[in-house]
Specification:
Layout (H helix, E strand, L loop, with lengths): L2 H10 L20 H10 L2 H10 L13 H10 L5 H10 L3 H6 L5 H10 L6 H12 L2 H10 L1 H4 L10 H10 L9 H9 L3 H16 L73 E7 L5 H10 L3 E6 L3 H12 L9 E10 L3 E2 L10 E2 L1 H4 L15 E9 L38 E9 L1 H5 L6 H11 L1 H4 L3 H16 L9 E6 L9
Parallel strand pairs: 1-2, 1-3, 3-6, 6-7
Antiparallel strand pairs: 4-5, 7-8
Helix pairs in contact: 2-4, 5-7, 8-13, 12-13, 14-18, 18-20
Length: 510
C-alpha cells in the first residue's frame, strides 16, 4: 500500500464505522473510508469515467475530471453516499464481483432495491452510459462528424469518448435530459435505429414520471461546495421489449447478436471485439461428473456475471438430455455469450457419464453440436466457449468402446441440416474449444483434488488484469501454467491441452 493510500485510510477512518448493511434499502448509513478505498482500487479507468459521468447531476460544479475517490469522499462527508448508493454505482458498471466481495450483497438485491427505493442516479445518465456501451469507435467517430453541422469544425470533440462528447454538448446546451432530438437525429443517420428507440422509450417514461430536466423538481442538485443538497431520484425503468419469434424459432425481426447493429451484416462490423453487455452475460453450463470442481467454477463464473447452471454426476444419457435442454433455452436471445464446462472420465473418442461401465461413450464433438448457429439460432453470431476436462481411462479398463449414436437435435433436425435461409454465419463459427486430458490415475492418487487445468483457469479469470486481456491471451498464460506443472510431475500426472477455435473477434471478459 502506498503512503498516500495509507494516509487516506488513517485520515478517514472512523472508530465505530457502521458496516455495510445487508439490506440495501437502508439509505441513512455512511460509508467507511476502507470500503471507498477498496472499491476505488478495484475499478479500471473506463469504469471510473462512467461513474464520474453518472454523478454529474449530483455535482454540477464537476467541470474537470476529479479523482473518483475525492468525489466519493465528498459525497460521503456530506452523509449522502449510502451503501445503497455505492452499490447502485457498482451495479451500473456491472461489477457484480465487488457487490458480493466488498458490499456483501448481490445483483438481485440491488435490482430489488432500485425498484422499491429512490435511486441515486437519474435515468438520463443511465441512458447515456447504455448508449456509450452499445456504440463502437467508428460509430462515435461518425457521430462526431455529424455534429459539424451544429458545432463547426468539431475540434473539441475529436478523439473523445461518447460520454466526453455528451458532456461537451451539455455545456453548450445541445443535449440535456429534455433535449435529445439532436442525438436521435445523429443516431438515425448512422443507422442505429435500435439506440434511437431507447431514447424514445426514455422520453415516454420521463413524461409519465413528470420529470423536469431529468431531476424531480422537489429535489435540488448537489454542489460539492454546497452543504445542503439531495440525492434521491425517483423514476421507473421499463423492461426492454424482446424480439418476437415465429416458426422454428427464427426471428421475424433482426436477431439480437453479440453486437447490436441495424441493417448491418456480420462481416461489416467494424469492432474487433465481441460485445458482451447483457445482464447476465450468458448461461454457463457446468457438467461435473467427478465432483471436485463445480463449486469453484460456479463462484468464478457467477462473479463474471454469468447465469450458472450446474449439474453433477450425470449418466451418459443425462448429459445428452441436459445439453439439449440448455440449447433450447429462449433466454439465449437476450444474452451475448455461452459457456459450457464438462468434467468427466473418458477416452480418445469421448466422455463417460457415471454409468460408463454399462453405457457407450458420448462423442466429444456432440457436446458443441446443440449450440451451433443452425441448431441454436439464438446463439448465432455470439461466442460459444467450451472447456473440457477429460480423465483418460486406459482401454483395458473399459467395458465397452461403443460410441453413443446421438439422435440429431432431438427432433429439430438442424444439427446436420441446412442453414436457415439468409444466414451469413457458418454453423460452427464463433466457437472456442479447449480440451484438456490427463490420466485417470490422477484421481486415484488424489481423489478429492480439483483439476489443475480448471483450477488455473479459475485463478486467471479472477484476476482483473487477466480479464481485461483477450481470452486467447489468457489461454496462453494457462498453457504456461500447464507447461510449468508438467515439468515438475511424473508423466502420469501431466496435462495436455488441445485448443481449436473459429472466433472472428477477440473475447474480453472484463
Amino acid at each position: 500500500m502506498t503512503s498516500k493510500a495509507a494516509w487516506f485510510l488513517i485520515e478517514k477512518r472512523q472508530p465505530h464505522a457502521a458496516p455495510v448493511p445487508q439490506c440495501l434499502g437502508m439509505t441513512g448509513h455512511r460509508m467507511s473510508a476502507q470500503v471507498i478505498h477498496q472499491v476505488e482500487e478495484e475499478l479500471d479507468e473506463d469504469e471510473k469515467e462512467v461513474i464520474l459521468f453518472l454523478c454529474r447531476d449530483l455535482a454540477p460544479d464537476l467541470t474537470t475530471k476529479l479523482d473518483l475517490r475525492d468525489l466519493l469522499c465528498t459525497l460521503n462527508d456530506k452523509g449522502k453516499l449510502s451503501p445503497a448508493g455505492l452499490a447502485e454505482l457498482l451495479y451500473r458498471v456491472r461489477r457484480f464481483d465487488l457487490l458480493k466481495r466488498i458490499m456483501k450483497t448481490d445483483k438481485a438485491s440491488v435490482e430489488a432495491s432500485l425498484i422499491r427505493y429512490p435511486k441515486l442516479v437519474s435515468d438520463y445518465r443511465v441512458l447515456m452510459t447504455q448508449l456509450s456501451e452499445d456504440m463502437d469507435k467508428s460509430e462515435v467517430t461518425s457521430f462526431v462528424f455529424l455534429l459539424r453541422d451544429y458545432i463547426g469544425g468539431g475540434k473539441p470533440y475529436k478523439n473523445k469518448s461518447f460520454l466526453d462528447v455528451v458532456i461537451e454538448l451539455e455545456k453548450v446546451n445541445l443535449i440535456s435530459p429534455d433535449k435529445l432530438d439532436l442525438l436521435e437525429k445523429c443516431l438515425k443517420n448512422i443507422h442505429r435505429i435500435d439506440l434511437k428507440k431507447k431514447i424514445q422509450k426514455y422520453k415516454q417514461s420521463a413524461l409519465e414520471a413528470n420529470y423536469v430536466n431529468g431531476i424531480p423538481t422537489s429535489l435540488p442538485a448537489v454542489n460539492l461546495r454546497d452543504p445542503v443538497y439531495g440525492l434521491m431520484l425517483k423514476n421507473g425503468i421499463k423492461k426492454e421489449e424482446r424480439p418476437t419469434f415465429g416458426q422454428r424459432g427464427i426471428s421475424t425481426e433482426p436477431l439480437k447478436l453479440s453486437i447490436q447493429e441495424s441493417r448491418k451484416s456480420l462481416p461489416q462490423m467494424a469492432d474487433d471485439i465481441y460485445r458482451l453487455r447483457s445482464q447476465p452475460l450468458g448461461v454457463c453450463l457446468i457438467i461435473d461428473c467427478i465432483g471436485n470442481d463445480a463449486e469453484t467454477l460456479t463462484a468464478t463464473f457467477t462473479s463474471l456475471g454469468f447465469e450458472v447452471q450446474c449439474h453433477q454426476c450425470l449418466r451418459t444419457e443425462e448429459i445428452h438430455k441436459t445439453l439439449g435442454q440448455v440449447a433450447c433455452l429462449t433466454t439465449h436471445q437476450d444474452y451475448d455469450i455461452f459457456v459450457c464446462i464438462v468434467i468427466s472420465r473418458g477416452n480418445s473418442e469421448g466422455i463417460f457419464g457415471v454409468n460408463h461401465q454399462t453405457y457407450p461413450v458420448f462423442p466429444l464433438q456432440q457436446i458443441k453440436k446443440p449450440f451451433t448457429g443452425d441448431a441454436c439460432p439464438f446463439l448465432s453470431g455470439k461466442p460459444k466457449l467450451f472447456f473440457i476436462q477429460n480423465y483418460m481411462v486406459a482401454e483395458d479398463q473399459q467395458e465397452s468402446n461403443n460410441v453413443l449414436e446421438v439422435d440429431g437435435d432431438g427432433g429439430k433436425g438442424s444439427y446436420l441440416g441446412q442453414r436457415p435461409g439468409g444466414s451469413s454465419v457458418p454453423q460452427e463459427a464463433d466457437i472456442f474449444w479447449s480440451v484438456c486430458t490427463v490420466n485417470v490415475s490422477v484421481l486415484e492418487r488424489y481423489p478429492n483434488s480439483p483439476s489443475f487445468y480448471l483450477r488455473s483457469l479459475s485463478q486467471l479469470l479472477r484476476r482483473p488484469e487477466e480479464r481485461r486481456c483477450s481470452l486467447l491471451s489468457l489461454h496462453i498464460d494457462l498453457n504456461n501454467k500447464i507447461f510449468d506443472w508438467n515439468s515438475r510431475v511424473i508423466p502420469e500426472e501431466q496435462y495436455s491441452i488441445l485448443l481449436e477455435h473459429t472466433l472472428r473477434k477477440k473475447i474480453v471478459l472484463s
